[in-house]
Amino acid sequence: MISGFLFRGLQGRIAWVAAALALIAVLVPFLNLSLAPDHALHIPDYAVSLFGKYLTYALLALALDLVWGYCGILSLGHGAFFALGGYVMGMYLMRQIGSRGVYGDPILPDFMVFLNWKELPWYWFGFDQFWFTLLMIFAVPGLLAFVFGWFAFRSRVTGVYLSIITQAMTYALLLAFFRNDMGFGGNNGLTDFKDILGFTLQNGGTRAGLFSASAFALCLSLILSSAIVRSRFGKVLIATREAESRARFLGYRVEHVKLFVFTVSAMMAGLAGALYVPQVGIINPGEFAPANSIEVVIWTAIGGRGTLIGPILGAITVNLGKSWFTAALPEYWLFALGALFVAVTLFLPKGIMGAMASVRQKFSAKKSAPSDPVIGTPATEQSGDAS
Amino acid sequence: MSLPRALIACLFFLFAAPVAVSAQEVDLPGSIAQLAQGKLKDRAAKVEILLKSGDPRVATVLNQLAEGTLYYRKSDKKVFLTEKTGKTYALTDPLTGEEIKDQSKSNLKKIKANNSLRRTIRDGLSLFALSSSDPDERMQAAETVFKSKDPIALPLIEARLLKEEIAEILSLLNQAKSAIVLSSADMPDTAKLEAISILRTMGGRGALTLLSAVEAAPKSAVAQATQLAITSIERRLSIWDAVQNIWYGLSLGSVLLLASIGLAITFGVMGVINMAHGEMVMIGAYTTFAVQQAVQIFAPGLTDYSLLLALPAAFLAAGLVGLILERGIIRFLYGRPLETLLATWGVSLVLQQTVRTIFGPSNKEVVNPSWMSGAVELAGLSLTWNRIWIFFFALAVFGLLFLLLKRTPMGLQMRAVTQNRKMASSMGIRTPWVDAFTFALGSGIAGVAGVALSQIGNVSPNLGQSYIIDSFMVVVFGGVGNLWGTLIGAITLGVANKFLEPFAGAVLGKIFVLVFIILFIQKRPRGLFALKGRSVEQ
Amino acid sequence: EETIKVGVLHSLSGTMAISETTLKDAMLMLIEEQNKKGGLLGKKLEPVVVDPASDWPLFAEKARELIDVNKVSAVFGAWTSVSRKSVLPVFEELNSILFYPVQYEGEESQRNVFYTGAAPNQQAIPAVDYLMAEEEVERWVLAGTDYVYPRTTNKILEAYLKAKGVAAEDIMINYTPFGHSDWQTIVSDVKAFGAAGKKTAVVSTINGDANVPFYKELANQGIKAEDIPVVAFSVGEEELAGLDTAPLVGHLAAWNYFQSVESDANASFIEAWKAYTKDPARVTNDPMEAHYIGFNMWVKAVEKAGTTDADAVIDALIGVAVPNLTGGYSAMMPNHHITKPVLIGEIQDDGQFDVVYETAGLVPGDAWSDFLPDSAKLISDWRAPLSCGNFNTETKTCGGKGE
Amino acid sequence: MPETAALKVQSIDLHYGAAQALRNVSLVVEKAKITCVLGRNGVGKSSLLRAIVGQHPVSNGEILLGRDAITKAPSYTRAGKGIGYVPQGREIFAQLTVKENLETGYARLPRKQRFIEEEIFELFPILKDMLSRRGGDLSGGQQQQLAIGRALVTRPDILVLDEPTEGIQPSIIKDIGRAITYLRDEKGMAILLVEQYLDFCRELADVVHIMDRGEITHSGPAEDLDRDDVRSYLTV
Amino acid sequence: MTEDLPLTPVLLYLDDVSVSFDGFKAINGLSLAIEAGEMRAIIGPNGAGKTTMMDIITGKTRPDSGDVLFEGDMDLTQHDETEIAQAGIGRKFQKPTVFEDQTVRENIELALAGERSVFASLFYQESEADKARINALLDTVRLTHRASELAADLSHGQKQWLEIGMLLAQDPKLLLVDEPVAGMTDAETIETAKLLREIAKTRSVIVVEHDMGFIRDLDVKVTVLAEGSVLAEGSLDHVSAHPDVIESYLGR
Ligand SMILES: Nc1ncnc2c1ncn2[C@@H]1O[C@H](COP(=O)(O)OP(=O)(O)OP(=O)(O)O)[C@@H](O)[C@H]1O
Ligand SMILES: Nc1ncnc2c1ncn2[C@@H]1O[C@H](COP(=O)(O)OP(=O)(O)OP(=O)(O)O)[C@@H](O)[C@H]1O
Ligand SMILES: NC(N)=O
Ligand SMILES: [Mg+2]
Ligand SMILES: [Mg+2]
C-alpha cells in the first residue's frame, strides 16, 4: 500500500525532477571526486559544498510549502524545526568528538568544560548513538510541531494569528538557545565537529557523501510530498486552506488534517537541518531567528507556492543570488536582492513556476487544470453570512 | 556644574566661618604648579593639600580640574584655567586672574582627573558650598555630605542649620547630619535617636543602608528604634517598588504602543503584512537626527526644541516614503496580502541599505533635549523625563488616531475601502486616494514613533528590525483591526514583561512573555479584542 | 599582472555591519598604503571584499569562497566569536590564515588563526584591578549580554574576585538578551545594589546595540561615574559616536588602544584614516588597531618567509614584532596571541576616552585562562616540536590531538 | 428633442481571462423608465452590470452616461456621476455598523446633503432598528435591504440592481416593487434591474431584455412580452 | 436506526432553544420536531432566525439554552461541526459556499460520502462506483460541461447548483437547505423542487425559502418562524391565511 501510495507521487513533472535529483546525487560526487580538477567536467569542492547546502534549504522550503502552499498555514516559524533538526545532529557530532576536544574531556563538550559543568545534562544522553540521533532528527521537531499544532489547531487559531504565534515560538526558542544555561553552547552554538559516522568532515569525500545524502533526502521528500498532495488528502488540504469551516461541515476533521501535514512538514524540516549542520560545520541559535523563517517563506513565494517544484527552485535561486551578490556587490547586494523580491511580486505573481506555466500556456492552446491555486482573499475583505 | 562666581564670593565670607579654622598656611603657587607634575595617582594627595588651604581660588582650580578644563602649558608647565572659545583657548592664571587669549590646543596639555579624584574634590568643595548663597549649591552640598558622611562637616552643618531658611535644604541638612551622627561611633544616644527618626521619615535605600549599619547594644532604645525604622522603611519601599514596577511596565507598554501603532493601520486596518514598518520608524529616527543636525547648524539656540520640528518632518518623510511605496508597489497587491509580505520585505532590505549608504552603518547621536533628561523624584518613585514624555506622547498619538478613524468621514472611508475595495468604489469613494492616504498615514505615524524612540535607543540602520517583531506581536495579541486592542495589548505586554523580569531575569522574562502570547492566543484565537459575530467567521 | 590577494571578511549588512564595516574600510586603507609602499614581494596587494551579512553559516561559505575560489593568501575578518567558530574549520581544512581583531573570551588557539584582539587577561582582569586599587570598589555588578564572551569573562572575573576576597553577596550577575532596549528595571536594580553603602562598580560586557539604551537609562536615572562607575569592554569610540556622552563622563572602558593615545604612530594613523575616509569626524578604535598590527605582522612575516605560502607564513609569524599605535611594539607569541598594553580610559564629553591608567609593560595574551580550573592546565605553543594549541601540562598530551 | 437615454451601452464585450462573458451587448436605459434584464444562470447578467458600474473592464465597445463616455472611468467616478449599485451577493461592509454602511454613500454628496433620507427608513424599517449592529451580523434578507438602502443614500440618477429580491420576504418584495415605481415616477430615476423573478419583473418593467450566453437575444416593451414566451427563453 | 425505534420516529428535536447575540434574542424558546423521512419547509420574515437555527443544528452556533437531539439520543449541542456532519447532517448555505480553488468535479469528490480520516484519505483510491456516482451528480446539477473548471468561475446560480450537488454527494440523513432557489429562474426553481421531493423520499429535509411558488411546489408541512420562535405551523394554505403571517411576512 505504501509503495503504491508513493508511486502515485511519481507522476508527470515530479517524476522527472525526482529522477534528476537522484541522478545528481550520484553524478555530482563522481564528477567531483574522480575527475582531475582541471577536467572540463570537474565540479569543484566549493560548488559541492555550496549546492549541498542549497539542497537542504530546498528541502526546508518544500516542507514549508506543504503546509503553506497546500494547507494555507503560513508558518513563520519553520526555521525552528530546521534548527532543532540541526541541533540534534550537532549534539551527535559533538559527542563524536569524544576526548579530542581542547580539554580532552571524554564526555563533556568543550563549552561545558570551560563553563565548569560537571556532568552531562540528561538531554544529551543517547546522542552518541547514530540510530538514536536519526530517530531524534524526526522526533524532536515532529513532537514540537505535534504539541504546538495540537493546541493551536484545536483552538482554531488561524491566519495571521497562527503565523505570529509560530513566530513567537521560534523567537522564544531563539532566546532560550542563546542562554548558556540551556546547555547548547549559547551563542557560539555547537562547533568544532570532527567526524560523522567515522568519516572526517573536513574531507572532500565526506562532503560529496553529504551532498549525495541531501539530494536523496530531497528526492524522497519530493516524492512523498507529491504522493500526499495527489491523494484525496491533498484535495482536503486545499479545501482546508480555502474554506476551513466548509470542510468541517463536510465532515472533515480539519484539525487532524492540519496536524498531520504540520508534523510531517516539521520532520522534513528537521531532516533538512540535520543534513545542513555537518555541511556548514556549525549550528547556532541564529538559525531560530524569525528573519530566517521569513526568508524561507520568501524562497517559497519566489519559486511559486502551492507547487512542489517551485520552492526547490526558489530556495536555490534566491540563495544562489545571495551567494553571488554578496561577493560581486558586497556593498550593494541588498538593493539587488530587495529589488528582486519586489520585482518578483509585481511581475511574477505566482512565482517562477507560475511564470513558466503561463509561458507554456501561451504555446499550448488548450488550457489545463490550473495547478497554481490563487491565493485566498484577505480576512478583512470577506463579508456575507455563510460559514 | 561649572563653578559660578557666587561660590568665590561666599568663600570670602567663609573666612570668618568655621572652615577657616581648619585652613592651613599652604604654598598656593607651588601646590598648584605641582598639579601639572607627576602621575595621576599622586594627584589626590596634592588636591588634599590644596583643599586644606581654604583659599577661594582653590575652589576654581579644583573645579576646573574635575571638569577637565584645567591645562598646563607645555613649554613651562604653568597651570591655567581655560575656556574654549571657538577653536582656541583663553587661559587664565588661577592666582592672578591674568588672561591670555587665542592659544592653540597644541601648546597645552590637559591635567587629567579620574573618578576618585573628582570625588575627593567634590567632597572637599562641598564643605565650602554648604554656605553658598546659591540654594541649588547648598542643596547639592548637603546631598554630597549625606553620601560622604564626613565628620568634618558636622560643625559646618550645625552652623548652617541655624541660618537656613529653605525648608527643603533644611531637611537635607538634617539628613546629612543624621548620616554623620549615625556613622560615627561616639555620639550620644539622644542624638542617635533623633537621627534615626529623621532618617525614618526620609525613607529610601540610603536611609536603610545607614540604619542597617547602626551598631547598638541589643534591646537598647537605639537598637529598637533602629529596628522599627528599618521595618517601616522596608514596608514603604516594597510598596513603592511595586508602583515603580507598574510604571516601568506602563512605560515599556507605551514604547510598544508607539512602535506598533503605525502597524495597527497598515497591517491592522489595511491588511498589508508590512515588513517595512520598522524601516518607517527608522526613517522617523533618522529624520530626527537630520533635523537636529540642521538646527545645530542654522539655529543652535533652538537645539532643545529640535524634536518639535522633527515631529512634523518625520511624519512627512515617513509618510512620503509610505505614499511612494503604496503607489509604486502595494496597490498592485490588494487582495493578495501574503505577497505584500514578500514585497515589503524587499523594500525593507532596500531601505536599510539606503540609510546605511547615506548615513553610514554606525549609530547616530540624537541628543536628549534638556526637558527630556534626568528624572523627577515623586515620593518613592523615580520617573525619568524621557519616559514620562514618551508615555503621554504615545497616548496622544493613539487618541488622535482613534478620533480620526472613528469619528471622521475619512476614517469611515478608510475602513470601508479596506473591507471591500470594489464596493467602496461603487459607493463613490475614491479608493486609490484613500488607499494612498491610509498607507501614508500609517507610515507617517510610524515615523513619528521613530522620533520618540530615537530618544531611548539606537539610531542605526538596524533600528527597524528591532521593533518589527514586537510590533506584530502587539497588533496580533490585541486583535487585528482593533485599535483598542493595540493599546491594551501593548500595555498588557509591557506590564507583564516588567513583572516577570525581576523573578525570571530579562531573558527568561521575555521568553515567558512569548509563551504567554502563544497560550493566550489558544484561549482567544483572534486576539484580546476579537471582532466577534458572523462577519468575521471564515 | 600578478597580485597577492587578501581577503576581507567583515559583515557589511545585518546586525554586525554597525561594527564591522569600519574594519573593512580600515583594511582597504592598510592595503592601499602598503601598495603605495610598493606592495609585497614585488607584487601589488589586491583586496577581495565579500559580505557575510552577519549570517554565521554564510561566514563559512564566504571563507571557503575566498580561499578556494579567489585564492587569497590571508583573510582579515570576523567579529563575533560565533563567526570565528564558523570559519575555523574552513581555515583548518584549506590551510589558510585568519587574523581575528576583536577582544574575545579566549579558550581557543588554532594553528591557522592569529588573535590580535585582547584575551580576557588583557582587558578584564586589569580593569578590575584598577577599580579595586583606584576606586576602592568592594561591590560588583557583572552585567552582560547573554552569550559566550560575557559568560566566560564573567566566570573568570567571578573566580578572580572571589580569589581576592570579595564575598558572594557582593557580586551581582545579570544577563540580558541581544539588543535589549528596556533597561529601566536593571538600572534601578543596579542603583539599589549600589545603595548598600559599599563602593560599587559595574563591569559591563553588554554587547553592541544594547549599549546606547543602557547608557541613556544610566544617565537619566542619574547614575554618575563618581558614584557607580561602569567599566565596559565592548564600548569604544565607534559606539560612543552614537551617544550624547556629556552625562557619561567618567565611566570607563578597558582596551588596548584609544584614539586619544598620544604617539606619533597613532597621530599619523588617525590622519591617514581621516584622509582615507574623507571624514574629519571619523574615529578610530581598538579592533582597527588590531588589524593594523595584524596586517603589518603578516606583511613582515611574508617578507621574512619570502612567500605567501600558508605554512611558511604561519611559522614565520611567531616572534614577529611590529609597532602598535600606543608607541611600543607588539609581538606575535607562540600561542598566536599578541602582546599588548592594557589601557583604562574615562569617557569624555567629546566622545573620546582619557587614559587614566596604563599597565607598566606589555601583557601577553593568554589563550587559556588561569582562572578556569580546566583551562589553567592548558598551554599553547605552535612552534615545533610542541606544535599544539592546547597542551595539557598535567598529562603532557596535546588535548585536541592526543587520542 | 430632449435626451431621454440616461445610459447607453454600445456593443460591449467582456472577458474573464480567456473566457468571454459578454458578446456585442447593446442596451439603452431610459430616464424615468424601468429596464429589466432577464436570463438564466450564468448568461452574463451580472457581468453586464459589472461592466456598467465599472467593476470589470470591457474589452470592446462603449458605455455612455448621458453624453459622456465612461467606458474607462473607475467605479467611483461613475458613482460620482450618479450610478447607484446594488450588487448580487450584497457586498455589505461586514465590520461597519448599519449606520456606517449607509454613510459610505456620503462620499459623492456635498456636505449639506449628507444625511439619510427618511424615505429609506420608511421603506426598510428594520434598518432603523439595527443602526448600530454590524452589517455582517445581519440576516441575509436584512443585508439585502441594507444594500438597497445604501445605494439610495447616494441619491443616484440611475439605480442598478442585481437580483434585489433575492432572499427577501414576500411582503418586502412588494414594498421594493412599490419603491422602485415610486423612484421612477416621483424622482424620474432611471432603473436597470436584473431579475430571475419573472412576475416581479413583468409587473414593474417598462422595457425588457432577455439574455442568453452573453448576448441579448430579445428586447422589447414589457407589455409585448408574453409570459409563456419568456418562459421559453428562460428554460434550461 | 429509525426502523429500530418505530415509536419515536423523530429524527431531529429542538427543545426550547434560545440564543442571543449581544443581548438580541435571535432564537427565543424555539421547539421543533422533524420526523424521519419528513420534508419541512420553513418560512418567516428576514431576521426571524432561520439561518441561526441551522447554525445551531450544525454546531456552528452554541445555543444559550435548550437541547437539540438528533436520532433521539445525540445531543448536537455537545458536538462540533465535524461530528455533526459525520453523524449525517448536511447543509447548503444561504450564500453559496464552495471550494473556489478546486474544480467543480473536485468539489463533488470532496463531498462524496466515505471515511474522512487522515489515513483513509491519504490512501483513498477512486473506485468505479464512486466515479459513476460523481458523474451522475454532475449530470443532476447540470454542470458536467464545466466539471474541470474552477468553481470560482461559476456564476452565482451555478454555485448554488454545485452546492446542492455537494450536499447530495454527502448522502446525509438530514439535509438543511437554506434558500436553494435564490437566484434561479422559474424553470430552475421547478426543477429544484422536483429534485428535493425526490431526495425526501429517502431522507429528511429542512428547506428555508422565501419563494412561495417553490414552497407550494414542495407541498409539505410549513413552519413559520418569527422573532425566533414558531408563529404558525401547518399546510401552506393554512399558514398563509394566518393573519399574523400575512401581517409580518406575506404582506398585502
Ligand atoms: N470572476 C469570474 N471569473 C471567471 N468567470 C466568471 C467570473 N464571474 C462570472 N464568470 C462566468 O461568466 C459567466 C457569466 O456570469 P454572470 O455572473 O454574469 O452570470 P449571471 O447571468 O449573473 O448568472 P446568475 O443568474 O447565476 O447570477 C458565467 O459562465 C460565469 O461562470
Ligand atoms: N452574530 C450576530 N450578532 C448580532 N446579531 C445577529 C448575529 N447573528 C444573527 N443576528 C441577528 O439574528 C437575527 C436572525 O438572523 P438569521 O440570519 O437567523 O435570520 P434569517 O431568518 O435567516 O433571515 P433571512 O431570511 O433574512 O436569511 C437577525 O436579526 C440578525 O441580525
Ligand atoms: N568576541 C566577541 N566580542 O564577541
Ligand atoms: Mg448574476
Ligand atoms: Mg437566512
From TrEMBL, chain A:
GO MF annotation, one: branched-chain amino acid transmembrane transporter activity
Keywords annotated in UniProt: Cell membrane, Membrane, Transmembrane, Transmembrane helix
Localization: Cell membrane
Pfam families, per database record: BPD_transp_2
Residues annotated as transmembrane: 12-34, 54-73, 80-98, 130-153, 160-178, 208-229, 257-277, 332-352
Disordered: annotated span: 365-387
Domain of life: Bacteria
Membrane topology (UniProt): Multi-pass membrane protein
InterPro entries per record: ABC_transp_permease (IPR001851), ABC_transptr_urea_perm_UrtC (IPR017778), LivM-like (IPR043428)
One Gene Ontology CC term in the entry: plasma membrane
Presence of the UniProt keyword Transmembrane in the record: yes
Name of the protein described by the UniProt record: Urea ABC transporter permease subunit UrtC
UniProtKB/TrEMBL annotation, chain B:
One GO term of the biological process aspect: amino acid transport
Gene Ontology MF term list: transmembrane transporter activity
Keyword Transmembrane helix: yes
The family this protein is said to belong to: Belongs to the binding-protein-dependent transport system permease family. LivHM subfamily.
Superkingdom field: Bacteria
GO CC terms, sorted: plasma membrane
Gene name as annotated: urtB
Species in which this protein is naturally found: Cohaesibacter celericrescens
Keyword annotations of the record: Amino-acid transport, Cell membrane, Membrane, Signal, Transmembrane, Transmembrane helix, Transport
Residues of the signal peptide: 1-23
Protein name per Swiss-Prot or TrEMBL: Urea ABC transporter permease subunit UrtB
Membrane-spanning parts: 246-273, 280-299, 305-325, 337-355, 388-405, 432-452, 472-496, 503-521
Pfam families linked: BPD_transp_2
Protein's membrane topology: Multi-pass membrane protein
Localization, UniProt: Cell membrane
InterPro entries (alphabetical): ABC_transp_permease, ABC_UrtB_bac, BCAA_transport_permease
Automatic annotation (TrEMBL), chain D:
Pfam families: ABC_tran
Start and end residues of each ABC transporter domain: 7-236
Keyword ATP-binding: yes
An example molecular function term from Gene Ontology annotations: branched-chain amino acid transmembrane transporter activity
ATP-binding recorded as keyword: yes
Residues of the signal peptide: none
Keyword set, alphabetical order: Amino-acid transport, ATP-binding, Nucleotide-binding, Transport
CDD domains, per database record: ABC_TM1139_LivF_branched
GO process terms (BP): L-amino acid transport
InterPro entries, A to Z: AAA+_ATPase, ABC_transporter-like_ATP-bd, ABC_transptr_urea_ATP-bd_UrtE, BCAA_Transport_ATP-bd_LivF, P-loop_NTPase
NCBIfam families per record: urea_trans_UrtE
Family: Belongs to the ABC transporter superfamily.
Name this protein carries in UniProt: Urea ABC transporter ATP-binding subunit UrtE
Organism: Cohaesibacter celericrescens
Gene: urtE
From TrEMBL, chain E:
Superkingdom, natural source: Bacteria
GO cellular component terms given for this protein: plasma membrane
GO molecular function: ATP binding; ATP hydrolysis activity
Record's keyword annotation contains ATP-binding: yes
Matching InterPro entries: AAA+_ATPase (IPR003593), ABC_AA/LPS_Transport (IPR051120), ABC_transporter-like_ATP-bd (IPR003439), ABC_transptr_urea_ATP-bd_UrtD (IPR017781), BCA_ABC_TP_C (IPR032823), P-loop_NTPase (IPR027417)
Transmembrane regions: none
Domain ABC transporter: from-to ranges: 12-252
Keyword vocabulary terms for this entry: ATP-binding, Nucleotide-binding, Transport
NCBIfam families on file: urea_trans_UrtD
Protein name: Urea ABC transporter ATP-binding protein UrtD
Source species: Cohaesibacter celericrescens
Lineage of the organism: Bacteria, Pseudomonadati, Pseudomonadota, Alphaproteobacteria, Hyphomicrobiales
Gene for this chain: urtD
